[in-house]
Amino acid sequence: MNTEKVTARRLTAEEVSELGLQDDIFISAGMDGLPLDCYAPAFLTEPGKNSEGGSFAARTVFGEEIHILPDNAEEPGIWVADKAGEEIEVLQSAGILLNLALFVPGGNKESLESLYSAARDAFGAGIVQRWSEETVAVPDVKVDLFEEPARGRKNTSGQNRDRRALDIYPTRVRFLEPSEGWKFIIEPHKEIVDDTPTI
Predict the structure, then answer these.
(1) Structure pTM?
(2) Is there a smaller number of Cβ atoms within 10 Å at the N or the C end of the chain?
(3) pLDDT tens digits, residue range 131-175?
C-alpha cells in the first residue's frame, strides 16, 4: 500500500455538521468489507447541517461511501488536516484501474497473448493483470447509434433523434449510457450519400 503520514485531528459531530461538500476530510479507507488500518481522502456527500441523527455520509476519492458516527469511539471517525493534531496514515492513489474491451479483428488466442505480453512489457509484469476475461466472437460490422426521448409520442417523425455516434461496432454500445430521459436506437449502418447536384 502506498501511504503517507498526515497530521490531522478528529472532529466531533458538532464540528462535522459545520462542514460543506468542498471540505477535505479523511475517513476509514476500508473498502468492500476489507478493513484497512489507515484513512483515505474524502468529502461529505451532503452538507453536514443536513445530516440527521448524528450520522454522516462521506465518499472517499476511491468511490467508497461510508456512514459514520463521529462521536462513536469504536469507529475511526472523521478527521481533518491540522498541524496541531496527531499523525495518521493516509492511503494514496497509486494508479488508475482501466477496464478494457478490446476488439481484435480475426482475433485468436495467439494475438490476445501477444497483446497481454506487450502490455506487461510496457507497464511491468506485476502491474498488468487479467481480472476477468470474456472472449466473444463479434461480426465485423458497424451500426448507427441514435438517441430518442424515452417517452416519445406515437406516430411522430424521427426528427427528435440525436445522432450520438457514427459507425460504431455493436460491442461498444454495451459500454455507453444514454443521456438522462433518452434511450438508444441501434440501426444497421447506412453510408451517407450526398445527392447534392454538382456543376
Answers:
(1) 0.52
(2) C
(3) 777 777 766 677 788 888 877 655 555 566 776 655 566 666 767
